[in-house]
Amino acid sequence: MTESHLAEHRAVKIALIDVPSGRRALDPNWVEALAEDFKARGQRTPIELLQTGERYRLVTGGHRLAARLRNGDVTIDAIVKQWADFASEAEVKLAEIVENFMRRELSVLDRAFDVAAWRELFEAVKGTVQRGGDRKSSKFKSATLIGDDAMELASDRFAANFTVAAQKALGLSRDAVFRALKIARIGESIRQRIALHPIADNQSELLSLVAETPARQNAIVDRLLAGAVSVSDAIAILDNLPTPAPRMPWERMSEGFSRLKPAEQERFFEAHEDAIRLWMASR
User: Model-level pTM?
Assistant: First the structure.
């Protein structure tokens, strides 16, 4: 690599930065918190940019960029890279995904889409995925939109590339990957509609939503945004059914468990190891 291709750390005019479409929705609360922190202590971590002619493409740091904009800043601290720093377009996208994972601030919904994209990129590199065109095309069939049987194999194959410790730290066990791939079947338009709704961080509710047809999903989301408390409640309203009966204690606990981070779920398993062993033996 020549000297001109080395990444540069410098201040970049915010007006020259383009944000690619399809990125996760920004959390306004997180943007506000960052903006206040920047006022107090400055921007300690630069964003990452890819130079494209006289302009720049955002690779990582969407919330930091929005925070600097909120503060009325004209420039932002950035690491500027060139195309020669990346092997392919996939590697540019992978940089964003990996950074999101390491910050551990993803919602269940965003995490599922990033797991699916990571898995797809991994398979594409190995030549085992047949891509069907651009994501924006109505004819595109994502490699993540596969049947359950194929998804079982895909989950096994992807999870096997991480050590047991890495699977635990990143929440990338075979079962976790399988659930993420199922959730990632949610269409992009619906994803954007629910990105900042509580359902975005509720795995069991997302799995219930994705079990419905796309048309039904849209109708359910309409009811959720209008005040329905759950997917089952929204379905009851749609189908003129009686209001669902109050959930049993184990159902409420299951919902709470689904919201725990992987490390917290691990601690739960350890706390109830004897009960789990008895249940496994009875099976």
Answer: 0.59
